[in-house]
Structure prediction request, 208 residues.
Amino acid sequence: MTFAPDLLDHYLDGSGEPRRLESDEILQFTRPIEAIAVNRERFATLTFNPDLSENTDPKTGEDLMDQGGDLDIRRDLARLEEGESMVIESEWMSDENILTNNSLDLSMALGTWKLTSTSDVTATRHGSHIYIDGTVLHKITDTYDFEPGEEYKGYGHLAWRLADEGFAAPFEIEGEFRDRIRGRVTLDDRGRVVDIDIEWEPEYEMDE
Prediction:
């Protein structure tokens, strides 16, 4: 695997130019995959739950605004009339440590990646169903700077010295790909969600 040494070479060339990650590079690590799964679950269960009276996660009690929750979207979905449509533009965030058994050096250099998942989805009401169709853009960002977080704090002093002396330069890492999302949300006679059926189809051709 050349991913870790390639990043180190780029750090040592001192250009500071951003480095784009391709989908296959992102998906070789379990933590980004887990973070994407978390954000998919948030979109499915929390966006389409009009019974929530507060902007909190019903399982954990955490404030959803910290992860991108939007109470107005849930309220608007609950008020859709027959044949009406609305666009869901929501954003979910997740911070995941990239710690990997494949490369301790890479774990220390990257530390925590931030994943932001942004939806562009149309929801349409037909009878007791809300049909959805659109895309969710997952974007991963990090600064390659040997700031690994508390778990490996203090291990990057030699790399920082190289940057301080002008022999290296931190740089931004960026990667993204889309999910195509289709599904159907079923409501009861009182407008409450009783079933959520969503299919996610990754669109990796964004690398082209």
Notes: Strands lie at 19-21, 85-88, 91-97, 112-126, 129-144, 171-187, 193-203. The helical segments are 3-12, 23-26, 30-47, 71-78, 104-110, 157-164. Confidence is low (pLDDT under 50) at residues 65-69, 149-153. The chain is about 25% helix and 35% strand.
